[in-house]
Please model this.
Amino acid sequence: MNAISEDRQTRLRAVAAQVADRVEEAMRSDLASALHGCDPLLVEVLEYGLFGGGKRIRPLLAVLSSSICGRRDADVYLLAAAFEYLHVATLIHDDVIDHARNRRGREAVGRKYGMAAAILAGDWLHARSMHLVGRLTGSEGLDIFCRATGAMVDGEFLQLRYVGDAGIGEQEYFAVIARKTGSLIASTCTIGALFAGGDLGQQQAMNRYGEKVGAAFQVVDDLLDYLGNQQQTGKKVGNDFIEGKVTLPVIAAMEQAGTEERRELKALFSGDRTRSGTCDRLYDLLERLGGFQRARQTAEELVREAVAALQVFASAEEEETYALLAAIAEYILVRNK
Amino acid sequence: MNAISEDRQTRLRAVAAQVADRVEEAMRSDLASALHGCDPLLVEVLEYGLFGGGKRIRPLLAVLSSSICGRRDADVYLLAAAFEYLHVATLIHDDVIDHARNRRGREAVGRKYGMAAAILAGDWLHARSMHLVGRLTGSEGLDIFCRATGAMVDGEFLQLRYVGDAGIGEQEYFAVIARKTGSLIASTCTIGALFAGGDLGQQQAMNRYGEKVGAAFQVVDDLLDYLGNQQQTGKKVGNDFIEGKVTLPVIAAMEQAGTEERRELKALFSGDRTRSGTCDRLYDLLERLGGFQRARQTAEELVREAVAALQVFASAEEEETYALLAAIAEYILVRNK
Model:
């Protein structure tokens, strides 16, 4: 990383911390009013799910997307909270679906409070997020937001369809991650711009930026699943493999593999994936066939495309916000959890 | 039932069938556009969940609530579909939570397609319903709708809190059912009136009608859980007892019970509720202490209050719709499934 990037990352960390504080404040105040008179257990479950040390990347994107289109008033933190609500709702439901034990180094909501409480708390957050987006951006924003939610569900179904199938290509992979991760991040950026009164060109630019950031984020996430340190990511290394999720390192390795290696890769995915030594063997193959390297290059390319999408905002006036949005995209490549 | 009521019920059945057809048509056309390009399994799960022979009472209420405020164009069927979407979303999630095997005489969605598909399909319907309500009634309607959804979740938490506690009173019972059942039905009626441009007085009248109809509906549902025929309701008789749900027949019986009977009732709920003979013993006690009779009277009183709330619409012009809404309330007392 060069000196300019390092400078940007330092500035980004400071702004991200400020925004996270203000968004958490907005969430607490919104919950206090929305949950007035509600069952104490519902309140507890929601607080546990929401205040467990998330990175608040989606709220930060919402705030900066609004800011770069010229709107910086306090309501933006409530809008930002809506995206965190939806994000946490999907995490809670996903953890129920995956029977996950942990999330962010703590017990998953469903594990701690039971499946019923987790499904219901997710539904509550879901409804509240729609409520806020509708209130703050009207039916135009709600339309974008609900389409993104529908796409997320569709992405999960697509992913289920491809479980254990090491024969899928990049096209199928990117179709899944565009829906699963890209859609909410792109909608966050687009709605941030819409909220600020950005014109269609600005909304489209932020949408493209969000799509690329989301895709890069997921590619790196999938890489970290193999390369990350369990303590840092809170995930077991090779978790995706065990669940049969075929991600970019595998697809890229398949493209370089000879007949025998292709057969072995397919057999690893369609066989007993929990058998001792299979994950290590897969890791060796992916390394040797350049799967990790190729996935890394793809993430770098996506980040370049994300930054390029910001070009329409490259004026002296918006230099600061522009640099922060670029720094978020670049941060994806240096994160290790 | 007197002759006028019988006449009304016949007319209601005909209108209900017409509305159900048009709402199903609206759902099919909406799904075709919203699900264009989506995973075929998602499409299949949604169609299975939505077209399984529901009574379409919420859509009917939406259509009539709009109609009595003077709006009868085709868009109302799309609005009506939104309420059915949300209703089915909650049924699908509830069945996952309760590990239910069957719903409406068929396998429950979660049982047939697995928990992951069921949770995700519920989320999809949830988002789509918000989308439609926001599009058709703006953020004012969305606000009412999302509050109702939040209340439903709160009602489920309250209900979990009271499981196995035969010491709760009518107040706690009505707090649960107002949230769990009343809120969505009341919001359906209120939003129907709002959609039609009804004034605040009309919206409030429809809200009150919906609250009372919802409460009466739930009281009868709880009665049928003990008295209904399994083939007709699709439920095992005494299911609520086995799940530890303390409903109005029990609460009413407790109020009439002597010390010894109170002790026995409490012991039945806090003990092993699946033990052979316990449900029969409870049934005898509820019968003897007038629990069923008192619950029935309460339902009748709620229906009277629902019809009374319609008074503001009692003009010659709206006689037909008025009579149908009254007939829906009265139908609750004659339904047996």
About this structure: Strands of chain B lie at 102-103, 106-107. Residues 3-334 of chain B form a domain with the Farnesyl Diphosphate Synthase fold (CATH 1.10.600.10). Chain B has a mean pLDDT of 93.
